[in-house]
Write a structure and sequence with these properties.
By secondary structure, the protein is an alpha+beta fold. The chain has helices spanning 40-67, 75-84, 86-107, 114-142; strands at residues 4-9, 17-24, 30-38. It is built from four helices and three strands; from the N terminus they run βββαααα. Helix 1 (40-67) runs parallel beside helix 4.
């Protein structure tokens, strides 16, 4: 199995960054495959959305440990948690979400409405997922 590394090349100006996926080719020779050519704001947006997913996963995990899976508002996620446990369910869902974020960020160069949609998703996610769990956990901690 080949080794993977990520290189980000920046020419120290406003042009988009180039993200390369480098892996060992045949006989171990390095081979570089350009994975994307994304503007810096899309890279930052993708990283922020991924961090939101991780934060929501951690907060949800803490909530599940304290209150049980009945507190999960998403019926599909709650069913998955019941079937395989809340930690494996969160790892599966959040990992898939982060992969989807990477794919969608890559597609912003081809689909004009996707960038504003991702900003909308970010806003809805903060308001609908991170803030409620933070409020519930902090008020419980202070009580």
């Amino acid at each position: 199995m080949g080794q993977f590394a990520v290189q980000i090349q920046d020419a120290h100006h406003e042009t988009p960054c180039t993200l390369h996926l480098v892996r060992g080719g045949r006989y171990g020779a390095p081979r570089s495959v350009t994975a994307s050519h994304l503007p810096r704001d899309i890279i930052v947006l993708g990283i922020f959305l991924a961090v939101l997913q991780i934060l929501d996963g951690v907060l949800t995990g803490i909530g599940m440990a304290q209150y049980g899976t009945s507190m999960e508002g998403n019926a599909l996620l709650r069913s998955l948690m019941t079937a395989i446990g809340y930690i494996p369910a969160l790892l599966l869902v959040k990992g898939t979400s982060i992969a989807l974020i990477a794919l969608l960020c890559h597609q912003t160069t081809k689909i004009s409405w996707l960038k504003p949609a991702l900003y909308g998703v970010m806003t809805i996610y903060v308001i609908g997922a991170v803030v409620p769990w933070t409020y519930i956990l902090v008020t419980d901690l202070l009580a």
